[in-house]
Amino acid sequence: EVLIQLAKGTVQHSAVFTRRDDKNDDPILGGDEKCVYWYGDVTKDDLQAAIRMVKPGEQSESVTYVNRVLAFIFATDDSFEKLMQLPKEPFRMSCGDQLCVNLAHISLAVS
């Protein structure tokens, strides 16, 4: 049941990412040489790339950090395990720009 929910969510959220970033940049396969900027919603206090979604197993919508969702959907198993050891906050980006959603820029550093 959870796998079905995740598969459905993946399709919906991929559409959100496609609509909200520059069509010429790929946050998943684009490489690490340049940033891929988020043009969608951001959090009010700390300007983090964010979306509203209903998480698997939950009933109500909540704000979720885009870089965490991308890692959840697309990171390798090894990378994902390392990232899940970090605090439940937006991942730091190695480029220093928290509006960058390039998967290759996600850092294991803790702020």
Provide a short characterization of the protein structure.
By secondary structure, the chain is an alpha+beta fold. It has one domain. Helix content is about 30%, strand content about 10%.
Mean pLDDT: 77
Indicate how many domains the architecture comprises.
1
**Which stretches of 5+ consecutive residues score pLDDT under 50?**
1-16
The helix/strand class is alpha+beta
Give the strand order of the largest sheet, numbering strands 1, 2, ... along the chain: 1-2
Order of helices and strands: HEEHH
Strand content: 5-15%
- The first-to-last residue Cα distance is 36 Å
Shape type? globular
Q: What kind of sheet is the major sheet?
A: 2 strands, antiparallel
Let me know the number of strands.
Answer: 2
Percentage of helical residues? 25-40%
Total of helices? 3
What is the radius of gyration computed over CA atoms, rounded to a whole number of angstroms? Answer: 13 Å
Can you give a write-up of this model?
The chain has 111 residues and is of the alpha+beta class. It has one domain. 32% of the residues lie in helices and 9% in strands. It is built from 3 helices and 2 strands; from the N terminus they run H-E-E-H-H. A two-stranded antiparallel sheet has the order 1-2. The longest helix has 19 residues. The relative contact order is 0.19. The N terminus is likely disordered.
